[in-house]
Amino acid sequence: MAEEMVGKVTHYYTHLGVAAVELTGELKLGDTIRILGHTTDFEQVVRSMQLEHEDIAVGQAGQLIGLEVVERVRPGDKVFKLT
After folding, report:
1. How crowded is the C-beta side of 68, counted as CA atoms within 13 Å?
2. CATH of the domain at 70
3. Is 0.85 surpassed by the pTM of this model?
């Protein structure tokens, strides 16, 4: 599987299980992503994204989105879309 970097984690909200991700590429609901960092490495399907506390189906480069994640992530972790 090919990987395309689509963003970087800027913050993690422990109580919500949500990562703030600064997008550098397009990300859609249903995409399979891999989050990779110094101590992070897992894959998941994108099930929930928000922009300004509103649910969105597609995130675009330049947006700072909230992404529901299945494991803890850390600032600086990279987000890759698997294709």
Report:
1. 15
2. 2.40.30.10
3. yes
